[in-house]
Design a protein that fits this description.
CATH class of the largest domain: Alpha Beta
CATH architecture of the largest domain: Alpha-Beta Horseshoe
Structural class: alpha/beta
CATH topology of the largest domain: pyruvate-formate lyase- activating enzyme
Number of domains: 3
CATH superfamily of the largest domain: tm_1862 like domain
Helix content: 25-40%
């Protein structure tokens, strides 16, 4: 046991946030205390993301800022940058003591002990498939109203732009029993909304000892049987894994929210082919149409990569046309970022950065306009089923919640309880959020 403290910083996706929670649990169990000051902690864990170049660069900048003030710290660099860059990290920054891939974070306490005992740098970037979930300890601390559970990791898709298959390994799925038990633990600690996570979450497939195979649809139905689970979401999905069973579930399971993040990346068949996405725009549209057949009020969000190598003005216009067709209500959009080791890194790119920036601005303005129109449609109406997630500490008369469509809702009210699902009279909005009071 130790009396030392740690600070953990997460970069990137929700899965990294989830992993950081589990690393926190491991370190607390090992006797560390959790510090809220990065400069005072004895151990600093950087849980990294390697999706975009800037995310990786930021890690090294953050390490430099910390060690400049005090280099008598143990620095652990874990996650996807650790997996991708491996022992090159020690050459890039001599202050890093531990390098640990995302499939092996359960080994961190032992690696810290080895570093302290032998005063040697430690590294493990093995793909230890599914083992880390055996080391998730039952936690007693309260949880937020909305909580993540990783059900699937890895990717077999090999999109031309993406490093995930190289940093997270092949697709694999956790056992249903394991997931349900973790869900029960979260419920006991205050969670009311479960968000199922995976690199390709709808590729979830698990066969139990009796050869019963569970898809994500069957898993959602199992979780739905737990009374205190009020809402279920899942992210991030791949279009190729959106089967009829899952689409139908959106119309039949009341706990499954009518909001789906389904990244398309581009509206051009030519660009999708070069991205190795393995679907066409017509196929993507059929999925959207099918979802709306089963669940007419479902709304869609997406990811867009702008300026992928070879993207022409025509390709970009086709992306804008797809946005007009689907009317995405929330989206993430970025200029293409080359990642070493991916197929796209070898593609010729003749489009100037300034033109890519102009395209991104046009696309984001269109998306923002759609989002504002959507939010405005709720003004002067009662929005039912807003889940209250927290109360403002600075002004207790204000609460924060989310709608079924994942819209942030700010509520002025008295005597609400975190975890309540309440109707809100929406008074004003902007393209990001809704504002209102309790509906009477």
């Amino acid at each position: 046991m130790t009396n030392k403290s740690f600070f953990i910083k997460s970069y990137g996706c929700q899965m990294n946030e989830y992993d950081s929670e589990k690393i926190t649990s491991l370190l607390l169990k090992d006797g560390y205390s959790n510090s809220d000051d990065i400069n005072k902690a004895d151990l600093i864990v950087f849980n990294t993301c390697n999706i975009r170049e800037k995310a990786a660069q930021k890690v090294y900048s953050d390490i430099g800022r910390v060690t400049k003030k005090n280099n008598n710290k143990t620095i652990a660099l874990v996650g996807c940058v650790a997996q991708a860059e491996n022992d090159e990290i020690f050459k890039k920054n001599k202050d890093v003591d531990i390098v640990l891939g995302p499939q092996s974070y359960h080994l961190l306490p032992k690696m810290i002990d080895a570093h302290n005992e032998y005063q040697k740098k430690q590294i493990n970037t093995d793909f230890i498939i599914n083992e880390k979930f055996d080391f998730i300890h039952e936690e007693k601390s309260p949880k937020g109203v909305s909580s993540y559970i990783t059900i699937q990791e890895g990717c077999d898709k090999f999109c031309a732009f993406c490093v995930v298959p190289f940093t997270r390994g092949p697709e694999y799925s956790r056992s249903v029993i394991n997931i349900v038990e973790e869900t029960k633990s979260l419920i006991d600690r205050g969670t009311r909304e479960i968000i199922l996570l995976g690199q390709n979450v709808n590729a979830y497939s698990y066969s139990d000892e009796e050869n019963m195979t569970y898809s994500i649809s069957k898993l959602i139905d199992e979780i739905s049987k737990l009374d205190n689970v009020k809402r279920i979401r899942y992210t991030t999905s791949h279009p190729n894994n959106m089967d009829q069973e899952l689409m139908r579930l959106h119309g039949s399971n009341e706990k499954l929210m009518p909001f789906l993040h389904l990244p398309v990346q581009s509206g051009s068949d030519e660009i999708l082919k070069n991205m190795n996405r393995k679907y066409s725009i017509d196929e993507y549209k059929k999925i959207i149409d099918g979802l709306k057949t089963y669940c007419p009020n479902i709304e869609i969000s997406s990811d867009f990569i702008i300026g992928f190598p070879g993207e022409t003005k025509k390709d970009f216009q086709e992306t804008l046309a797809l946005i007009d067709y689907v009317q995405f209500k929330q989206s993430y959009s970025f200029i293409y970022s080359e990642r070493p080791g991916t197929k796209a890194a070898n593609l010729e790119d003749n489009t100037l950065l300034e033109e890519k920036k102009e395209r991104l601005e046009i696309l984001q303005q269109k998306l923002q306009k759609i989002q504002l129109e959507f939010n405005t449609s709720f003004c002067n109406t009662n929005l039912t089923n807003v889940l209250i997630e927290n109360q403002s500490q600075s002004n207790p008369e204000y609460y924060f919640g989310r709608s079924t469509f994942l819209q942030p809702v700010y509520v002025k009210a008295k005597n609400l309880t975190v975890g309540d699902i309440v109707p809100i009279g929406i008074e004003t909005c902007n393209h990001k959020s809704l504002y209102g009071t309790i509906a009477h």
